[in-house]
TrEMBL record, chains A, B:
<dbReference type="InterPro" id="IPR036388">
    <property type="entry name" value="WH-like_DNA-bd_sf"/>
</dbReference>
<protein>
    <recommendedName>
        <fullName>HTH marR-type domain-containing protein</fullName>
    </recommendedName>
</protein>
<dbReference type="Pfam" id="PF01047">
    <property type="entry name" value="MarR"/>
</dbReference>
<dbReference type="InterPro" id="IPR039422">
    <property type="entry name" value="MarR/SlyA-like"/>
</dbReference>
<dbReference type="InterPro" id="IPR000835">
    <property type="entry name" value="HTH_MarR-typ"/>
</dbReference>
<dbReference type="InterPro" id="IPR036390">
    <property type="entry name" value="WH_DNA-bd_sf"/>
</dbReference>
<feature type="domain" description="HTH marR-type">
    <location>
        <begin position="4"/>
        <end position="140"/>
    </location>
</feature>
Length: 156, 156
DNA sequence: TCGGATAGTTCGATGGTCGAAATAGTAACC
DNA sequence: GGTTACTATTTCGACCATCGAACTATCCGA
């Protein structure tokens, strides 16, 4: 009933659905997938007090520098993000989000976290701890596998 | 330690990492994200005995018919997929996967499921059942939220 | 102050995606 | 049985996200 195969299938299904949700949400707000991903990264870093630079954003998204410039142009002209030259090193640009982006984030997470909270009501604290452990292990495994394959571009 | 916020964060992280893995894997095999997604859908349907048609594939991927044609052109010329006219309705095309695609699927899932199996060794059957219940509930919640928002394109 | 290195942008080319029109086939109707 | 309306898929022309290479601005070491 809940063997590993089932879990893998459920996991994949969850990823597909979440992915789908992100895509649709972005569409409704006139943002591409890439823009959504970038915005999340910029917001996270900004909130953490260590604003991202374009090049670090490019690295995190596995995107070329020029493509990243395009993404930022779009996000800036749509009013979600601001570019500010660093005061200490004027080559660098610090990326900060506007209220519009924060608002977007709330609109994104509010319905999701609401639905999740409701869906997870029936789980005890112990069970939630187990689930957290499971998710963490799965994340680590995913990252590890990615690292392994990175070295062997098995071309068929 | 494992409150809902933590779970949401872990879930998002898992989705991001999985997404990333799919993207990289596709790159190594010369396939775009779209091609990967299409291939998975075609394989699933083929295995189920009800091969997909281009238009149904387009619907499932939220892609235009013309874009779907391009995807299939790529998958066909790369040898992953075959187009076959339906014998009953010759307007229709039935999509079937070649051995190459099955091989690709194995190469994709083998390392992943291996890593997951190892990562999940420490979980009891009871815990796995709990986790399966959690994943199912989360999938349903994601689908439900998507359905809700679908009606309200909250433009900012 | 000069030369090399770094951060970011601009430019031309490639190619994935789209909407509209074209093509091929089926079904309905007289 | 032939004409018309409809469906499934492909082709065509345009758009734009992405890429690599060249360019500008800035910093650091000698």
């Amino acid at each position: 009933m809940a063997d590993n195969t089932t879990l893998v299938r459920l996991l994949r299904q969850l990823v597909v659905e979440s992915d789908h949700f992100v895509g649709l949400f972005g569409e409704w707000h006139g943002l591409h997938r890439t823009d959504m991903n970038a915005l999340v990264l910029i917001m996270d870093a900004d909130r953490r007090g260590t604003p991202l630079s374009p090049s670090r954003l490019a690295g995190a998204m596995h995107l070329s520098a020029s493509a990243t410039t395009s993404v930022l142009d779009r996000l800036e002209s749509s009013g979600h993000v601001q570019r500010a030259r660093s005061t200490t090193d004027r080559r660098k640009v610090e990326l900060r989000v506007n209220d519009k982006a924060l608002d977007l984030g709330r609109r994104f997470f509010a319905p999701l976290s609401g639905a999740y909270t409701a869906a997870w009501e029936s789980f005890s604290d112990e069970e939630k701890a187990t689930i957290a452990r499971f998710l963490t292990a799965s994340i680590d495994a995913t990252v590890a596998v990615r690292g392994e394959i990175a070295g062997s571009p098995t071309d068929g």
